[in-house]
Amino acid sequence: MPVGAHVTLEQPQAAAGSSYKAVLRVGHTCAGATSTTAITVRLPAGFAGAKPVPKAGWITTVQRAALAQPYESHGRRVTEDVITVSWQAASPAAALSGDFYDEFIVRGQLSESPGILWFKVLQTCDVGASDWAQVPASGSSVKGLPMPAAPLEIMPGGHGGHNH
Questions:
Q1: Is 133 helix (H, G, I), strand (E, B) or coil?
Q2: Cα distance between residue 32 and residue 22, in whole Å
Q3: Which of 1, 33, 50, 134 could be cross-linked to 82 through a Cys-Cys bond (beta carbons 3.0 to 4.6 Å apart)?
Q4: Could you state, in order of their start, the residue ranges of all structural domains in the chain?
Q5: Which DSSP letter does residue 92 get?
Q6: Domain 8-138 carries which CATH code?
Q7: Contact at 8 Å (CB) between 87 and 104?
């Protein structure tokens, strides 16, 4: 597998407490496939209030679940949140051909805690699937991992606010 042959984040660093637009870049299909037919992102804890950007020709869905750690947003207590976002090609013609590159976008609010958030992405293709979900035992280097999740480094010094 060529170096860089995985789903990555356009901006791999962001300030703690900031609004973040996760742009997941898909530049290839699964091994032996001709097109990507679905992308499912398992959102990390610490990425709150997720709102996906819809894509023409794709069906966008979200899965919500109860939170182990509720949080406050705009003066209300949030006890459940989006945990996965999926985009599925509405037809074979809408699928992402292996000859092309595309981006799948979801916006959310980052936690105030510095550290690494891992965006785990299941890429489903016309033949097979690739689960980009491996994380290192320690640290943030994905070197040597054949199916790495996309890391986002949360940097200290956020402004604590967010933009809409």
A1: coil
A2: 27
A3: 50
A4: 8-138
A5: G
A6: 2.60.40.2230
A7: yes
Q: What amino acid occupies position 114?
A: P
Contact criterion met (CB below 8 Å) for 25 and 110: no
What pLDDT does 5 receive?
A: 56
The Cβ of residue 118 has, within 10 Å, a number of other Cβ atoms equal to: 22
What is the token pair recorded at 100? 């092309």
Report pLDDT for 55.
95
Q: What's the mean pLDDT in 129-134?
A: 95
What predicted TM-score, i.e. pTM, was given to this entire model?
0.88
| Mean pLDDT within 101-125 | 95
Q: Biggest alpha carbon distance in the chain?
A: 50
Mean pLDDT (the chain, rounded): 89
What pLDDT is stored for residue 133 in this prediction?
95
Residue 163 pLDDT exceeds 70? no
Phi-psi region of 57 (alpha: psi -120 to 50; beta: other; left: phi over 0): left
